[in-house]
Write a structure and sequence with these properties.
Radius of gyration: 16 Å
Number of strands: 8
Shape: globular
Distance between the termini: 33 Å
Order of helices and strands: EEEEEHHEHHHHEHEH
Largest sheet: 8 strands, mixed
Structural class: alpha/beta
Helix content: 25-40%
Amino acid sequence: MNLEISKIANLPTQYGDFKIQSFKDNNKEHLVVFTNTLPTIPTVRIHSECLTGDVFKSKKCDCGEQLDYALKQISKDGGMIVYLRQEGRGIGLLNKVNAYNLQDFGHDTIKANELLGFKQDYRDYSIVDEILKYFNIKKINLMTNNPLKLTSLKDVNINKRIPIVMNSCEYNYEYLEVKKEKMGHLL
């Protein structure tokens, strides 16, 4: 993997003061947000970009709430968020909006992707091993509900899984059910 790595910069936020660093792999630029001091076993959240949830606080998903929760916890416990630029489970923003349109007509997230000619998930977590290796991290507490994240890391030991429990609402209840029933998320 041929990575281009940025300098480190300060990132003061409403959750605390962090550092940021960008990792570019081919044409994708990912961001790592981390505390000034990393504990021996840091808490790590691998978070795939969700513009609608993270920025616009869409109620169709729980992504923005998960990111906010992770920032609060990591600020307190020490650790990092690996923010991966793979919008819409890897199908991109344009196709994600088209999938949202199909969801407006009653299709679940997986069926909407299939109707657009995609499989349910194109995300790739291999760069996370490279990022953790760069930070010399060998053991983590992984903040996730996604079993693919638990099995995708090859070069790091997962000390424990920290579940992220968010409340459902009328807009995301079915979305969360699909994640649990069809994608095996540990909800």
